[in-house]
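Two-component signal transduction system YycFG, regulatory protein YycI
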Amino acid sequence: MDFKRIMLMLTLFFLIFDIYLGFRVYQQVQSTTIRQSDFQQQSIEQRLQARDITLLSPLNEEEVEGILIKTEDNTVLRDGLNQLTHQQVNLSDENVLTATFDEPLNMEGQITPETSTLPSEVAKFIRDQYLLNDELFIEGGAYTQYWYLPTNRTIVFWMTAINNTPIVDGSAEIKLQLDENYNIASYTQTYQHNFVTLDEDKPYKLITAREAIEVLDTRIQTNLPSNSTIIHVTLSYIKYKEWDEINIYLPVWNVVYQRSEGQTGSMIVDAIKGQVMER
């Protein structure tokens, strides 16, 4: 077989191989495009359902506006230490108050191992009987919204900024720890005051609660866990900047979910930029 004939056969072989390879790539691209198209055509509810994620309530599509707020560092907790009784108290350099009661505060059996959420009447009992008692808590009446974590036996009361929007980053909360008998054994407290709005006449257009869930669902590294329940999606504030003694708070969507085994978690989405934020 002469050299020219060999070269011709090799050329034909590689030409046929290139055509075959190009056809396979085309098939894969078409398949990927179809899958992406199907994904885009599915509603967020359908995509969540496919992963066994349940919504306790419909996703809100109402367009909302939001603004930044600021606070200044304060000495409210330090100034109020002397008023506290019947507890061992410590205040850290970061202005976090930690206290253990000499005797647990009696919850009168209103929380049991079967309690999964905090009923409003129980929250009212805690506020009226304990948080509003100046000998037990400093400015306890300022904490109006609440959440219960049954796996940790922890009740969290949050302060709120403008429009009754809770601050959920841990910088303005009372976290009550229940003992094995579900009485209040100890707590930690942080505090902010004098909330001031920034550029109130130029509010930001925020993404909707529905769009926040879509952000979480489409990003693999921040995916909502499968086989879970989205309990609520709440407009909230978190601290994102500190300058000297000034704290700047940003509007976010706080997405709280519960895994099938009962563990509760949350994810934060920047309500202005539509980006997932680390807590």
